[in-house]
Design goal:
Number of helices: 9
Shape: globular
CATH architecture: Alpha-Beta Barrel
CATH topology: TIM Barrel
CATH superfamily: Divalent-metal-dependent TIM barrel enzymes
Helix content: 25-40%
Strand content: 15-25%
Number of strands: 12
Largest sheet: 8 strands, parallel, barrel
Strand order of the largest sheet: 1-2-3-4-7-8-9-12
Number of domains: 1
Structural class: alpha/beta
Radius of gyration: 18 Å
């Protein structure tokens, strides 16, 4: 199966409705720039029969990254050790070394899922709390994980620092890696009026494992919603190019979760990612380490 070191270039989120098109076009010119795929393990852990066979087919042909949805690193309830052990076994079964999660929470005190990713207050107490949960996750999985910067829409009144300071504090305290979402940087910069380029200037390049790029919905001039259901707009493309120039080229994946167009349309954006990666600085490499 594919080694993590092969996660490079441009990737695409592996949605089940895309499976027949991707399998049919494998080895054809349409997919010549597709170098890795991403799955949400929650959508595949219990899969059997046809879907398990299809996932195995992809695991034999493409490097796979796992991007989690419901660990709730910032949530109030204890982490689910049972769930993390399921994740560990899943990663082992398909030889997937990379697991990332959102720097957010999605559970409440009733132990129920909110079905949304909510922001963690940017406080020193939250840094310590989330970092401890990340360390616990890494110990159970016996591997480093990466956390993704998320979009959010309401500022916490108790925050003591800005978003990038919080992210960097968590990365340092937890000694984990970063899954850099360029669209989320842009969305938050519009919604909260900060400089997206200055934000990227403060990113620790050595911690980036890979990036996300997606489209969003503009509700108002100062309100963007991260829907993953639209085409990527030019300012986000410009921000990605700046990130490559500033931080080095890192593997970057196109997310499209709704209003999914035919595969050739998606591949125009994947191909544009690949094209942006060519004339910029040397590729960013990230040595993934196992947790002792």
């Amino acid at each position: 199966m594919a080694e993590l070191s092969e996660i490079r270039g441009a990737g695409l989120g592996l949605k089940r409705e895309l499976l027949p098109q991707l399998m049919q076009q494998h080895g054809q010119p349409l997919l010549s720039q597709l170098q890795f795929v991403e799955i949400a393990p929650e959508n595949w852990i219990e899969a059997g029969g046809k879907y398990a066979a299809e996932l195995d087919w992809f695991a034999q042909r493409y490097p796979i990254a796992c991007h989690g949805l419901c660990l709730s690193l910032g949530g109030p309830d204890p982490l689910s050790v049972k769930f993390l052990k399921q994740i560990k076994q899943f990663l082992t079964d398909f030889e997937i070394p990379l697991y990332t999660e959102h720097l957010s929470y999605c559970t409440d005190t009733s132990n129920g899922y909110i079905y949304d990713l909510l922001p963690i207050p940017f406080t020193e107490e939250a840094v310590q709390y989330v970092a401890q949960r990340i360390r616990q996750t890494q110990e159970i999985l016996q591997r480093r994980i990466a956390v993704e910067n998320t979009s959010f829409y309401v500022d916490s009144p108790i925050s003591e620092m800005d978003e990038i300071s919080f992210i960097n504090a968590v990365l340092t305290e937890a000694d984990c890696d970063l899954h850099l979402d360029i669209n989320n940087v842009y969305v938050n910069s519009v919604n909260f009026g900060f400089d997206a380029y200055a934000f990227l200037d403060q990113i620790p390049a050595q911690r980036i494992v890979y990036g996300h790029l997606a489209g969003h919905l503009q509700v108002a001039p100062d309100l963007l919603v991260d829907t993953h259901g639209e085409a990527i707009i030019e300012p986000v493309w410009h921000l990605l190019k700046y990130a490559y120039n500033k931080l080095g080229v890192f593997p970057t994946l196109l997310e499209r979760d709704s209003h999914i167009p035919p595969l050739p349309v998606l591949m125009t954006e994947v191909n544009r990612i690949a094209a942006l990666q060519q004339p910029t600085r040397p590729s960013h490499t990230h040595p993934l380490q196992q947790v002792a």
